Automatic annotation (TrEMBL):
<dbReference type="InterPro" id="IPR013083">
    <property type="entry name" value="Znf_RING/FYVE/PHD"/>
</dbReference>
<dbReference type="Pfam" id="PF13445">
    <property type="entry name" value="zf-RING_UBOX"/>
</dbReference>
<dbReference type="InterPro" id="IPR036116">
    <property type="entry name" value="FN3_sf"/>
</dbReference>
<keyword id="KW-0436">Ligase</keyword>
<dbReference type="InterPro" id="IPR027726">
    <property type="entry name" value="Trim36_HC-RING"/>
</dbReference>
<dbReference type="Pfam" id="PF18568">
    <property type="entry name" value="COS"/>
</dbReference>
<dbReference type="InterPro" id="IPR001870">
    <property type="entry name" value="B30.2/SPRY"/>
</dbReference>
<dbReference type="GO" id="GO:0008270">
    <property type="term" value="F:zinc ion binding"/>
</dbReference>
<dbReference type="InterPro" id="IPR040859">
    <property type="entry name" value="Midline-1_COS"/>
</dbReference>
<dbReference type="GO" id="GO:0007051">
    <property type="term" value="P:spindle organization"/>
</dbReference>
<keyword id="KW-0808">Transferase</keyword>
<feature type="domain" description="Fibronectin type-III">
    <location>
        <begin position="399"/>
        <end position="492"/>
    </location>
</feature>
<dbReference type="InterPro" id="IPR017907">
    <property type="entry name" value="Znf_RING_CS"/>
</dbReference>
<dbReference type="InterPro" id="IPR043136">
    <property type="entry name" value="B30.2/SPRY_sf"/>
</dbReference>
<dbReference type="InterPro" id="IPR001841">
    <property type="entry name" value="Znf_RING"/>
</dbReference>
<protein>
    <submittedName>
        <fullName>TRI36 ligase</fullName>
    </submittedName>
</protein>
<feature type="domain" description="B30.2/SPRY">
    <location>
        <begin position="477"/>
        <end position="704"/>
    </location>
</feature>
Length: 710
């Protein structure tokens, strides 16, 4: 038998770090105290109301919520409500053991099973730890006597006298089950927490929890695989017994591993001290370099200061000599008193030159030295960035790579990355991005921490290019930055709409998916019937479909993809006053060679085509994008045919009266033209033969990421 004192680690609540008290089983199969669950939920509610402040984490000194759990508060709940009752309103929180997000559902804490087996083991441990401290009688008058037995039906402890009084012979209470003194009272029958009047008699193999027959008949386990409780008891007990026997048989191997781990502990201790010394030496070298640079800079400033002060002081003395009865002027005044011409001329010649220089200096006064020290400003911006990026680098941590195919720029930016070795060696990733601006000399990176391998960003400007990079962190060790990837945002805010299944929709030729985000045209029997009478030339009607929402003003962008097998697709915009003409226009497509009775080839058909269209459309098909024939377009027809991008976009600017067609993958404009926006404008699509169009889905928040649209 395993000593009861040797299992203390298994009896500690992960939240309060104390022995379990009324433990509950979470959906992830970890245990937690009943009181701790309530305190965590209350603490989370306070944190939401306080805006996730650090002080809110101290609302209960009993629980210890990890920093990573607190960082995910905003992604779990945004209720912002203070508690005003004994029951927490929130039902979402991360498990303290595995950090998995737990949803308690409508019943909240009441929907969790109480772990009576664990509770019994904890009680045995408590008694062994405190050497069976006496449990007092619950019914004695003060002072209470030591209890001698506990009634499992009454959930109370009694001394001999009180037990006889409350369980008189010959009554129903005399048949109650009693045991030795204990504080652990467990029910004889385990009841279903969802159906309180039903006992559990089955075990759900999918959810790994006991259920009652009502749960199986019409509850949340109706379609789950269940087994009888006796079968589950026998199966799980056999498996657990075999696993325990296997572990016991490997006791020598376990001891060897423990010995090895003890050696590794000592080795890790020594290596950590060595690493500290090496890190200290590295920083000391940096300190030494900085001190040398600092001393050299201060010496240069001091030398320059002395030279400038000396020059300015000399200039001050020279100008003081220009004052009356002082310096040069005073000396000249004394020379003027000389009456002997020869002696005067001998002295006055040189003096006159000095007086002229002083006069010239006075007219064009300029300080002998600059007072500013702008040349001695130390620019440490780059060095600060490098030092701020200073961390431990390890060759064992893989450099993540941004996956440009999985990353998207639409209503929001979805940035995805992966490791070359397909292993998740990092604990957390840091994604940095900045807007490319030629006018800005310095680059300021915006930073966000991500637990997974993708991030949705919603604060980017339209019609702008951004650079992205990512690195992984494992503790204090980080990988080098990934290669920078440049992506461009749409030229305008994204316009959301669905295909209209009412206005002009031909359900015989076109097929919509239930969500109305995809439309397909099938080249089937109806097309053959429609072409039966055609002999020469070809006037085949296109099947049109429009968006269910119109645009009155502003600049908008939407994107879609065309299946590669599509024969002919037209895309563009149509004003509301021409929708009826659009659906009743029978001459949409002319023959690619000759029009019957026209007497000329297809060169004039482009003019007919352009002038007869009720809306602005471009032609796609057979994996090609056809630039319309306009005066500004290239004369060579081959130069007007481009490869069909995997995703196309349309940008409508109602204010300027222009519509542009884009390669939505690179946000590059392929063709732009004027359009009449006097009425309400609708997205328009036309299909013929086998073709399909899929609207681009909006980027939404991924798993474990909160988003305002949810």
């Amino acid at each position: 038998k395993v000593a009861i004192k040797g299992i203390e680690r298994e009896l500690i609540c992960p939240a309060c770090k104390e022995l379990f008290t009324h433990p509950l089983i979470l959906p992830c199969q970890h245990n937690i105290c009943h009181k701790c669950v309530k305190e965590i939920l209350f603490a989370f509610e306070d944190s939401f109301a306080d805006g996730g402040s650090e002080s809110s984490n101290q609302s209960s000194p009993r629980i210890r919520i990890s920093a990573s759990s607190m960082d995910r508060i905003d992604r779990i709940n945004r209720s912002g409500r203070k508690r005003n009752s004994l029951t927490p309103r929130s039902t979402l929180f991360p498990c303290p053991s595995c950090q998995r997000d737990i949803d308690l559902g409508e019943r909240g804490i009441n929907g969790l099973f109480r772990n009576f087996t664990l509770e019994t083991i904890v009680e045995r441990y408590r008694q062994a730890a405190r050497a069976a401290i006496a449990i007092m009688c619950d019914f004695c008058k003060p002072p209470p006597q030591e209890s001698t037995k506990s009634c499992m039906d009454c959930s109370a402890s009694y001394c001999n006298e009180c037990f006889k009084i409350h369980h008189p012979w010959g009554t129903v209470k005399a048949q109650h089950e009693y045991v030795g003194p204990t504080t652990n009272f467990r029910p004889k029958i385990l009841m279903c927490p969802e159906h309180e009047m039903e006992r559990v008699n089955m075990y759900c193999e999918i959810c790994r929890r006991p259920v009652c027959h009502l749960c199986k008949l019409g509850g949340g386990h109706a379609n789950h695989r269940v087994t009888t409780m006796s079968t589950a008891y026998k199966t799980l007990k056999e498996k657990l017994s075999k696993d325990i026997e296997y572990l016991i048989s490997k006791e020598s191997q376990v001891k060897a591993h423990i010995t090895q781990l003890d050696l590794l502990l000592k080795e890790a201790e020594c290596n950590s001290e060595r690493a500290k010394q090496e890190a200290s030496q590295s920083f000391e070298k940096l300190y030494h370099v900085l001190e040398e640079k600092k001393s050299a800079a201060l010496r240069a400033i001091e030398t320059s200061k002395n030279i400038r002060l000396e020059k300015l002081q000399t200039q001050v003395e020279e100008y003081q000599g220009l004052l009356e009865n002082n310096g040069l002027v005073g000396y000249a005044q004394e020379v003027l008193k000389e009456t002997d011409p020869s002696c005067f001329v001998q002295t006055a010649k040189q003096l006159h030159v000095r007086i002229q220089k002083a006069t010239e200096s006075l007219r064009s006064f300029r300080p002998a030295a600059e007072t500013t020290f702008e040349d001695f400003v130390v620019d440490t911006a780059k060095q600060e960035d490098i030092l701020g990026d200073l961390s431990f680098h390890s060759n064992g941590l893989e450099i993540p790579e941004i996956n440009e195919e999985q990353s998207r720029m639409y209503n929001k930016a979805l940035i995805s990355w992966e490791c070359p070795g397909k292993t998740d060696s990092a604990d957390i990733y840091v994604l940095e991005y900045h807007k490319l601006n030629k006018e800005e000399e310095s680059v300021t990176w915006q930073k966000t921490e991500v637990c997974g391998k993708s991030k949705v960003l919603s604060d980017l400007d339209d019609d702008s290019s951004y650079a992205f990079r990512v690195r992984g962190y494992k503790g204090s060790i980080c990988s080098p930055w990934s290669r920078e990837v440049i992506m461009r945002t749409p030229p305008a805010p994204v316009f959301n709409f669905l295909f209209d299944d009412k206005c002009g929709y031909n359900n015989e030729h076109l097929q919509l998916n239930p969500r109305r985000t995809s439309v397909e045209s099938r080249a089937g029997f109806p097309l053959l019937l429609g072409s039966e009478r055609l002999q020469v030339g070809c006037y085949t009607t296109l099947d049109y479909i429009i968006g269910d929402t119109g645009i009155a003003k502003g600049k908008h962008f939407w994107a879609f993809s065309v299946e590669a097998y599509s024969y002919l697709v037209k895309v563009g915009v149509v004003p509301s006053n021409k929708i009826q003409k659009l659906f009743h226009n029978t001459h949409d497509v002319t023959s690619p060679r000759y029009e019957q009775d026209s007497g000329h080839d297809s060169g004039s058909e482009d003019a007919f085509f352009d002038s007869s269209q009720p809306c602005t459309l471009v032609t796609l098909g057979m994996k090609k994008f056809f630039i319309p024939a306009t005066p500004a377009a290239p004369k060579d027809p081959a130069s007007r045919i481009l490869p069909l991008p995997s995703c196309l976009g349309i940008c409508l600017d109602c204010d300027r009266g222009r519509v542009g067609f884009y390669d939505a993958g690179r946000m590059k404009c392929l063709y732009e033209c004027e359009v009449d926006c006097s009425g309400l404008m609708y997205p328009a699509f036309a299909l013929m033969g086998g073709a399909a169009v899929h609207l681009e889905e909006a980027v939404t928040a991924k798993y474990r990421e909160y988003h305002d649209d949810i």
